[in-house]
Design goal:
By secondary structure, this protein is mostly helical. The protein has ten helices and no strands. The radius of gyration is 21 Å and the shape is globular.
């Protein structure tokens, strides 16, 4: 079930990105970010009231657990700078590379409260195919903008760190309250950025559709899903599962809107999905093998 929720998070992200893109076109990057966070705060607070969850801002969690919203803003800044300097395909690929590296490190060392997981042989299939898929998605634009490449790679790092930090806070509060605090922390940062970095605020409300304002609500859902899945799914598997959901939903949305989809992105996504499936099948087979061995040993001990 948690694997499905991980993939669902990727589906929600794709829809959210599409809605936020329309909002950004009307208001500009930073003003749109403010609106998204305001909607997110209101939506999360409303859900807390409906579910009668007590919004407890201060908890037993360490102070760094409250930084998820701030780290998430960094992801937006990194991607905004890279956009237009390298292709979207390369941004996606480099972001995934950053996520994959960070996920492996967190799994290996157990940092930020992540359960320490040893790398087994079956995981090598997932690692190898992920690397192949990522490089298939990259193109020549990465050689033309070094800083944009570094920031795209960094955006993948901040994505994993942000969701991991949010999950740590959620364990001390609740997944929903954690999502609320995430957007509440990010809101004042977005306001400051909008005031100082955006030259003018273009209120083109007439050009926006009501559903474009739902991106903030979907952001709450995304953080909520990650708060549920991070403690139960390895960081690396979560990265690949959410990516598979994200990339194929994005392709479906592009086709539905009559837009062109990148062949390299589709091919890379297929390679990663196939590798992930093979990886999960090998892990299931190994788990069954270990369980069978343990059962035989237990039966032998009973006979003795």
């Amino acid at each position: 079930m948690y694997y499905l929720l991980s993939m669902l998070a990727g589906v929600v992200i794709s829809v959210m990105v599409s809605l936020n893109g329309g909002l950004t076109a009307s208001y500009g990057s930073y003003t749109a970010a403010v609106i998204i966070h305001i909607v997110g705060v209101i939506f999360a607070a409303s859900l807390c009231v409906i579910r009668k969850e007590h919004i407890k801002i201060r908890s037993q969690a360490p102070l760094w657990a409250y930084l998820g919203g701030a780290i998430g803003v960094l992801t937006t800044l990194f991607n905004n700078y890279a956009f237009g300097r390298v292709t979207i395909t390369s941004i996606v690929a480099l972001g995934l590379l950053g996520q994959s590296i960070t996920s492996v490190v967190l799994d290996s060392f157990g940092w930020l409260g992540v359960e320490k997981r040893q790398t087994n042989k079956s995981s090598i299939v997932g690692y190898f195919t992920a690397i192949i898929g990522i490089f298939v998605m990259m193109d020549n634009s990465i050689s033309e903008a070094a800083l944009a490449v570094v920031l795209s790679l960094s955006s993948g790092i901040t994505v994993v760190v942000s969701r991991t930090v949010n999950s740590r806070l959620a364990t001390e509060t609740s997944p929903l309250v954690g999502s609320f605090i995430n957007h509440l922390v990010g809101l004042p940062i977005c306001i400051v950025l909008a005031l100082f970095l955006q030259k003018s605020v273009l209120l083109m409300v007439a050009d926006t559709k009501p559903w474009m304002y739902l991106g903030g609500a979907l952001g709450v859902v995304t953080v909520l899903l990650f708060n549920i899945t991070v403690p139960r799914v390895s960081a690396f598997h979560l990265t690949l599962l959410s990516f598979v959901g994200q990339i194929f939903t994005g392709i479906a949305l592009d086709l539905a809107l009559g837009l062109r989809c990148s062949t390299s992105t589709f091919a890379g996504g297929l390679i990663i999905a196939a590798g992930l499936l093979a990886n999960m099948m090998l892990e299931h087979w190994n788990a069954c093998k270990i369980q069978k061995t343990n059962s035989i040993e237990a039966a032998s001990e009973q006979q003795d």
